[in-house]
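Model it.
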Amino acid sequence: MQASPSFSSTAAITSPPESPASTKLHSPPSKFQLQATNSAFPLKVITFDPLPPAKWPSHLNPLQKLAASALDMVDHFLINQLDSKFNLPKPLDPAIQLAGNFAPVRECPVQHDLQVVGQLPPALRGVYLRNGANPMLSPAGGHHLFDGDGMIHAVTLGPGNRASYSCRFTRTSRLVQEASLGRPLFPKPIGELHGHSGIARLALFYARAALGLVDGSRGTGVANAGLVYFDGRLLAMSEDDLPYHVKINGDGDLETVGRFDFLGQMDRPMIAHPKVDPITGELFALSYNVVKKPYLKYYKFGSCGQKSREVSISLQQPTMIHDFAITETSVVVPDHQIVFKLSEMVRGGSPVIHDPNKISRFGVLPRNDADDSRIQWIHVPDCFCFHLWNAWDELSSRGDKIVVVIGSCMSPPDSIFSERADQLRSELSEIRLNLTTGESRRRVIAPGINLEAGQVDKRRLGRKTPNAYLAIAEPWPKCSGMAKVDLESGEVTKMLYGEGRFGGEACFVGAEEGGGGGGEGWLMSIVRDEKREMSELIVVEADSMKQVASVRLPTRVPYGFHGTFVHFQLLRGQCLC
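Modeled.
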C-alpha cells in the first residue's frame, strides 16, 4: 500500500471558494488557498503566490542543495522569459480552463444522510464514482483541461433512500511529490510542453531527476480520466501512466492503495479506456509510446488478472489513441490524424498536432492472436473519434464480414487541443468496416447535435446494442442534457437539465445488474446548477428518459470526465492491496 506522507507546512489540496462565480484566476492564477481534509494526508492551510521556491527536503547533501538552488534560478528567469514570448491560446489558458465550475475544489470527507429528492431505485445499491481533473496546485504556466490531478467523487446509495458523498485526490506519485515540495515541477504534457519553454521544462525536470530532487521512475501520470472495476479493484487511469488502485472503504470514503502494474505483468502506461468483456470477464487494453517503437501495444488479461496477450502493433508514427473497441472476436484500433511530433517543439509549436496528410484508418485484430500479422487496416477518411462507444460483428446480405463501430466523430480533429475558428462538432456515427472487401462506410446517426461522453449497456459491450446514452455537449465544453439514441433509426430522446444547469457523462447502470427492478436501467450524472450554486447526482430512468431521483451534494462538484457504478455485491470481493 502506498504510504500517506505527513507534511507539516507545505502547499496541498486546493480550496478555492465554494462559489465558482467568486473564484478569480489569472494567467497565471494569482493565489490559491490550500487545505487538506483527509487525516491520512495532513496538510496545513496556507496561501502562496505563483512559482514559490520549492521546499526541498532538509536531508539533501550540500551539492544537491546548491544544484537545486541553481536550477530554481534557471526555472524562474528562463521559463518566465520564454513564457512571456508565448501567447496562450484559449485551450491552454488557465484563466479560461479553470473558470466557473471548472475551478478545482478541496477534498471532502464522507458526508452522510444527504437530502434525496424522489425515490432511489431499490436495485441501485452501491457507489457511483466519477473521475475528473482537479489541479492541486496553481498552474505555473499553460493549463489544459486534461492536465489537472485526478480527483474521484463518490456517491454511495444505500437502503432506505439514504446517500453519502466524498471526494478524494488519487495519490499519484506526481501529486505526493509536488505536494511535499509545494509547487508543480512535473511538466504538464499538453498545457506546458509547447515550444522552447516546453523543451526547457523537460530539461529542468530531467536535471532535477538526475540529482535525486524528484523521482520520475514511479510514474508521472495524473490518473484523472477513466475508471474501471476489474478483478476486485477500482482502477483510475490516464494514458500517461499505469493505473492507480483506489480502495472504496465501507463508509464510502476512498483511499489510494498505489500504482498498479497488474502484479508485475505490465511496465507501460495504459490508455484511459480499457474494456471488460461482460461474458468472459476478460480485460482488454492498449498502451502507446510517444518516443520509441513499438508505438503501440495490445494487452489482454483473464478475468482473474493473468496476462495472456501482449502484442506489439506496428505504426509508422506515434498516435494519440484515447479509446478503442472490442467485438466478440476482435479488437478495433483507431489510427487517426492526431499524432505526436516532438520536433515541433523546436519550431515553437506543440508536440500534439493534426496531420492533414494522414488518412484515418481502423485496424481489426483477432483478439486472441499472439502477434499483429493478421491485423487488417481499413481507411476511413475524414474520421477522428476521440471515443468509441461500442462495436460488433455482422454478416452482410452477401455474406461479407462486417465490423460495425459506433463512435463520436469530432471535427475539426484537433479542436480540443488547438484554438480553432471553426465550431467543434461531435457527431454520433456508425462506421462499417468490410473485412471482405477492405472498404468502409460512415453515416451520421444523429445529425445536428453534439453527442459525447456516454456509454452503451455494458452488459452488451462487444455485441449489437440498440441504443447509446450520451451527453449533449452543448455549449461545448459544457453538457446541457443527456440523450438516448436509437442506433438504427437515429431517433433521439432528450433529457435536458434546464437553464443554467450542466452535467457530464451519462453513466448507464443496467436494471439486472443490481439484482432487481425492470426495464433497461438507469442513467446517472452529476449536475451543477450554476444559478443556485448547487450540485446534485441525478438518476434518470433509461426507458422513459425521465428523472426519478436526485441526491443533493454537500459541496460544489466541478465538471469532470468518466464514471462507473460499483454494486455492493462486487465490493464484497474487493481486493484491499
